[in-house]
Fold:
Amino acid sequence: MPRYPKPPKVRDSPVIPAQIESLPVTTIGNGAFAHCTNLTSVTIPDSVTTIGNGAFSGCTGLTSVTIPDGVTTIGNGAFWGCTGLTSVTIPNSVTTIGNGAFAHCTGLTSVTIPDSVTTIGGWAFDGCTGLTSVTIPDSVTTIGWGAFRDCTNLTSVTIPDSVTTIGGWAFDGCTGLTSVTIPDSVTTIERFAFRNCTNLTMYVTRESVAEEYADGNGIPFEVK
Structure:
């Protein structure tokens, strides 16, 4: 994750205005609050549509954030390394969760991904060791490379029929994952997608891509 210059010191719970000099605030810029370790909460106005790359990266004291309904894009690394963040609700307006958006948010235990999201970016939740379960909505078609890599406490995941591609390393190192059902819609499972999932049993359909993948990679599987 790139380092952003430290901004001026901000108070611990800033309120971002909806307008500045009569102009609407629509974007929180790249690295806007990066490494503001004293930041504990932030209120984002409804006018905002984009949370920029690394906007809150390294805000280790951030425990809660409300993302308003107008936001459509959560940028790459937007909340990277926010280790104090325990839960986040992503609104129905969001279509893209950027690469590494919540990576290394080790305190994150739950996340709600709405039906509007079509792509979960690469490494989006990489290293979220506190995450125990995730439901992927049936709007998602692609689970990016390393999206849930090293989520060691993740025990269950629901992959919907809309998903066609599971990227490389997507669930690599998810040692707590015990079962996953791969739907027939999945036509591509890239290399190392489930590597080091030492307790995993895959549930697959006969002669499917998933069966071929499990068999070829020595992963226990059952035909559903």
Notes: The first strand starts at residue 19 and ends at 20. The mean pLDDT is 91.
